[in-house]
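Whether sequence alone determines local backbone shape is best considered at the level of individual chains. Part of our work consisted of pairing the sequence of a single chain with a tokenised description of its backbone. This step matters because it turns folding into a mapping between discrete strings. For completeness, the protein is quoted in full, as a sequence line and a line of structure tokens:

_____
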Amino acid sequence: MPLFAIASFDSTDDENDDEHLLQMTDILGDLPEGIFNKWTRENRCFGPNRQQINSCVNGEPDDGEFRFDSLEKYFHSNKPSDLDDREAEIIIALIRKILQYDPEKRPSAADLVRDPWFIVEDPQ
């Protein structure tokens, strides 16, 4: 199951994979070199310096209308109104830790329970 939902609209598996990688790039940031270098159709979406020239996989340059917001922008525009900015930043940092591209850099369950978001501050 992909990390991000992909609407197929009669797309091929390769096109779905490309869309998935583009969504990850938009939301989480640049793909690591190792993943990017294994992507055989990256030239449909990226220029020679890894600048994104296309936000969908049809091969036609576009104006970016199909790009996704970054994790931070999406979170801030959808967070509950009673969540203050300090806690929002703590939550975003936690999500970023969990969604590391490199599994070796992701926190363990033991690390996660020590994350600031899970630690209840003593009001005294």
